Amino acid sequence: MRLKHGFLIIVLMLFVVACLVFPSCLISPFFQWGMGGGDSVPASPTVCQDEKPPLPNFILALEKALPTVVRITTSEDGSEGKCGSGVIYTADGYILTCNHVVENASDIKVDVPDVGSFSNAKVWCYPDVDLAVVKINAKDPLPYVEIAPPESVGVGQWVLAIGYAYNIPGSPTVSQGIISATNRSIGVDGHTFTDIIQTSAPLNPGNSGGPLVGLSLTEDGEHALIVGINDAIIKDADNMGFAISNKTIMDVFEI
Fold first, then answer.
1. Which residue of 21, 29, 88, 140 sits 20 to 30 Å from the alpha carbon of 223, by its own alpha carbon?
2. Is pLDDT above 90 for 176?
């Protein structure tokens, strides 16, 4: 029994000495990064930092989009009416907005950032899709944003909702989100609207008629494009806004 104990002590001492003299030979077979032998190195991560898609540059997009978003206020038979938003989509002063912003208005005032105010604007209404076009006559060409091709819009796309929320004085409010769904149908005031875009970008009263702006990456950089016109919200819901789609806009105006 003593011989057996002595033998075990000698083996243990040899093992300790071996660990001190040749640590890699004994440790590496048990703890390896890869599937190879003792000389393996840590495996590269499956997704490298350089392979991740870059986040959009919202600042560049807003430099293009903000000057095109207008404040629209209406009056009805001399009394105060509604306040909403709109977006210039041609240099000669055609503006997209929602029908419910300008319907029944006896006068419409349009405030263009850094340009001025315009009254007695002409209006064309399309209540079946809750769209309207407002025309103002400016002396010089106006900044504008083009409408995105329908095929360029998809779920998960980054978007910016821009408009004069709650008619707060100053510049328009900007909120950010994604396209949550497309081809929604919603019912508002007894009307059903189809081909609606759902977005997680927060919307508030006063946002109606303002643009839902998407970003298009071209050789010249990122550009803002209209993917929808902000239209409706669900009361007490979080991050559920709805916009008239660019497809509907292009169908109505045969763009």
1. 140
2. yes
How sure is the predictor about 170, in pLDDT bands with cuts at 50, 70 and 90? very high
pTM of the entire structure?
0.76
Whole-angstrom distance, CA of residue 96 vs CA of residue 69: 10
Q: Give the span between the Cα atoms of 200 and 176, in whole angstroms.
A: 8
Q: What are the extents of the domains in the chain?
A: 58-65+145-253, 66-135
Q: What gap in Å lies between CA 245 and CA 182, rounded to an integer?
A: 8
The answer to whether the CB of 98 falls within 8 A of the CB of 244 is yes
Look at residues 232, 189, 190 and name the one whose alpha carbon lies nearest to residue 210: 232
Query: For the domain 66-135, what is the CATH code?
Result: 2.40.10.10
Q: Quote the CA–CA distance of 103 and 177 in Å, as a whole number.
A: 29
Write the pLDDT tens digit of every residue in 53-64.
566 778 888 999
Q: What is the CATH number of domain 58-65+145-253?
A: 2.40.10.10
Choose between 89 and 12: higher pLDDT. 89
Q: What element of type H or E holds 6?
A: helix 2-21
**For range 34-46, the mean pLDDT:** 45
